[in-house]
Structures are given as structure tokens and as C-alpha cells.
Amino acid sequence: MSGLINYGSCSVLWVGLAPKLRDLLVHRRDPYLRAITAVLALASLCFLLGAPPTVGVINEVGHVPNLAAPLTYASITAYSASSLVLVVYWQGGPRVHRTARCWMLSYAAVIVAIGILFALGDAATERRSDFDTYYATTPFIGEMIVLYLVAHLTAVTVTGVRALRWARAVTGRLRVGLVTLGVGTITGAGYSVCKLVAVAARGSGRDWSVLSTDLSPGFAGIGAFLSVTGVLLPLLGRRLTHWYDSWRTYRRLRPLERELADINVRRSLRMPRPLSPGLWLTWRETNIHNGLKALEPHLDHDLFDRVYARESRQADGPRRAGTAALAVTVATAVRRERAGRPAFASRTDHLPLQLRVVKSVTDLVHVADALADSAPASPALPASPSAPASATSASAPASASALVEQARTPSGALSPRPGVEGGPEA
Questions:
Q1: Cβ–Cβ < 8 Å for 182, 160
Q2: By C-alpha distance, which of 163, 160, 185 is closest to 174?
Q3: Mean of pLDDT values over 193-220
Q4: Which are the contacts of 352, defined by CB distance < 8 A and separation ≥ 6?
Q5: How far is the C-alpha of 198 from the C-alpha of 210, rounded, in Å?
Q6: Using CB atoms within 10 A as the burial measure, which of 27, 76, 345, 362 is most buried?
Q7: Is the pLDDT higher at 352 or at 331?
Q8: How far, in Å, are 230, 238, 271 from residue 234 at the CA level?
Q9: What is the structure's pLDDT at 95?
């Protein structure tokens, strides 16, 4: 037996373990994270130690025939305990730490018993792939084999039943993960069932070692794959949802960044795009905040107040009214600044609109949505608009996006604060 199934399963487990090791370095005291890491690490160790080539190396290096057997059995027992502890911590409850401690102490006693029984027994002939059936009737060694198989069968059965039972009480990604974990652990029970049947057959004089050497590794590999998938699904699902939301927000912010791109480029405020896509949302937010700060002297606060008052009677809440009014004000200010119009006189009684309106990235998204629904900005502001229109006039558009489009159209430029130097020429 080449050990291909063992090494393949070990590799899959390490793929799931690698990101958890990084998280564990940051959150060392998180018992749930420690349990997940232990499950993945011990499962991969079980497959690694159980591969016949690895068995030969361990026996040769340790100078003890079949030394790999108790080491493999101990790792399987520890993996069984970690699976139980993981479900206990996952489900939580008032006695979670006490329950987890009881399972760990019980299986620690099993590991100690495995070592003692191996030391008392006689396993002088090296058996790399059929140790279980070859020594099934050997004193102490046979008891050791039955002990670790019963411990494994108990652990995976309890873990699978608890996971499936709990899955009925939850929904979403957690339910999918629990069902997958439950099916995986119960499938893994086929490993110990096949070996127990083969050991029992050996005790009655039959040779069913094919169950132990050929069939049981398949159950173990499939069970480990499903179990790891079930453990990681809620975590990966939450992370994938976060990535999707970040990417969607990044895309929706594009109209606002594009509106401010000209002033950012001319004033050398535009940041270079980072190589990592995970930083693109932060990069776009930074460019937007830089542009809004640079544009602040050209923002007409009175225009903002008038549009805000109008939108407050139509929009869903004051925050949406504020973002709609900011979109109109930004569109107007961009044309003023691009045309070289003087900035408005500073007023100490007004907070910057960026601070008044933008409380989170959601507010920026709403501003960008209003800009996206309007026409592209015109390249220049004419010296003498033919018919300035007030945001509060009877002919004003009925929506914020229409007001933005009007602010971008030379013939429909919104009027500035009355009596303030630097406004559009009459």
C-alpha cells in the first residue's frame, strides 16, 4: 500500500489548517480557535503517521518494531477528543468548559493506557499495513487495538449525532456546516467499524484483513474531508460574504471617486492602487475622503441646507436626505472648482460637510448612488449660465439624482449662497 490516500488526505487538511495557524498566533486564548486548530492538526497527523512509508521510517528511526502503531493510535485518540471538544465549544452553554475538560481527561487516560498496553505486549514482527488484524489476538496488543477503535467510534458517533441534532435548531451557513460535519464524522466511523469487524473476524479464525487495510482508509479519508469542510464552511462562508460585500461596496463607490478624480490628480492627492485586492476598498475610500477635503472650500453650505430640507420631506430618514444633498453639492462644487471659481468665504459656524454627513462608508455609497443615477459631468462651467435655477424653485427636479444632473448641466447650474463673493456670475 503506497499511502497515497493518507498523504492526499493530509495535504487537504493542511490546506485548511494553514490560515487557522495564522489566526491562532493572534488569538492564542480563544478556546474555539484552539479546538479547530487541534482538529485539523491532529487529523493530518493521523493520516501522516498511518501511511505505510511513514510507519517504516518511524520504526527504523526508533529502533522499536511497530513503534508507529501506538503513536498513530494515540494521535487518532487525540483527534477524537478534539472533535468532541470542538462541538462542545461550538455549541456553547453554561457548562461548556467543564464538559470539554471531562472529555479531554477521559481521552488522555485512553492515550496513557495505549502506551502501557503496548509496553506490556509483544509485537516483535513489523507489520506496516495490517498491524491491527495481525496482532488482534496478541495479549495486551489486542486490547490496545480494541481500546483505541472503541474510543474513536465513540467520539465520532457522539460528535456526528450532536452536530446533526444541533443543525435542526439553526439556519444558514452554520446549519450547512453542522450537517456536513455530522455526515463527515459518521462516515469516519466506518474506519473503526471496518477495523473492529476485521479484528473480531481474526479472533474467530477468519481473515478479513481487507476490511482493515483497503476499505477503512477510504472511510477515513472521505470522513476527514467532509469533517474539515463542515468545520471551515461557517468560517469561510462568513469571510466570503465579507469579501463580496467589500467588493460590492468598492464598485458602488466608483461614481463618487470618479467625480473627485480630477481634483485629486491635479492636487497630487490620488493614492496609487495597491496590488492586493483586499486593500482596494480602503484605497478608494481614502481617495474619496482626500477629494472631499480638498473640495470643501467650494462646497455651498446654503445649497446643501436647501436641498437637505427638500429631501427631508421625501427621503427615507435624515441620513439619506443628507447624502442626497451632499451629492448635489459635490456635483456643483466640482464644476466650480474645475472652472477656477474662487472658494466661498470660510464660516466658523459650519462643520465641514464631510463631517456632518459621512458617518460610515454606507453614507459614501448613498452619495455615489445619487451620482451614478445622473448624467456625466460637463467638462467646464460657462461664464454666464443662461438661467440659474434654485433648488427650491417650483420647477426643481423631483429627485436628488435629477438635482445632481441639473447641477452638472451648464444651463441648470444651481445658485450659490446669495450675496457671497465668488458665486456664479449673473
A1: yes
A2: 163
A3: 88
A4: 293, 296
A5: 8
A6: 76
A7: 331
A8: 8, 6, 35
A9: 83
Round to whole Å and give the CA distance between 311 and 323: 10
How far is C-alpha 79 from the geometric centre of its chain's CA atoms? 25
Instruction: Specify whether the CB–CB gap between 220 and 188 falls below 8 A.
Output: yes
Question: Residue 414's beta-bridge partner residues?
Answer: 389
C-alpha cell at position 355: 463631517
Q: What is the pLDDT of residue 400?
A: 63
Whether residue 252 has pLDDT greater than 60: yes
More confident residue, 314 or 266: 266
- Tell me what pLDDT residue 341 has: 84
- Enumerate the H helices of 121-215 as residue ranges: 131-134, 141-167, 172-203, 209-210
Structure confidence at residue 395 (pLDDT): 38
Q: What are the cell numbers at 179?
A: 450537517
The chain-wide mean pLDDT, for the chain, equals 81
Judge contact between 102 and 84, C-beta under 8 A.
Answer: no
Set of cell numbers at residue 299: 462646497
Distance CA 332, CA 414 (A): 7
Model pLDDT, residue 253? 93
Query: Can you tell me the distance from the alpha carbon of 82 to that of 415, in angstroms, rounded to the nearest whole number?
Result: 70
Nearest residue to 251 (alpha-carbon basis) of 376, 355, 402, 364: 364
C-alpha cell at 30: 480563544
For residue 96, the model assigns a pLDDT of: 85
Give the integer Cα–Cα distance in Å for 17 and 31. 16
Q: What percent of the chain has pLDDT over 90?
A: 22
Sequence-distant (6+) residues with CB within 8 A of 426 are 384, 388
Pick from 55, 152, 70, 67: nearest CA to 117:
70
Closest CA to 381 of 332, 327, 419, 415: 332
Residue 401: the pLDDT is: 63
Q: Find cell 495557524 and name the residue.
A: 21
For 62, phi then psi, to 5°, come to -80, -10
pTM here is 0.63
Nearest to 216 by CA among 325, 132, 292: 132
Tens of pLDDT, residue by residue over 336-348, are: 888 888 888 776 6
- Of 416, 263, 269, nearest to 329 (Cα)? 416
* Residue type present at position 250: Y
Q: Is 224 left (phi over 0), alpha (psi -120 to 50) or beta?
A: alpha
CA nearest neighbour of 132 among 116, 150, 156: 150
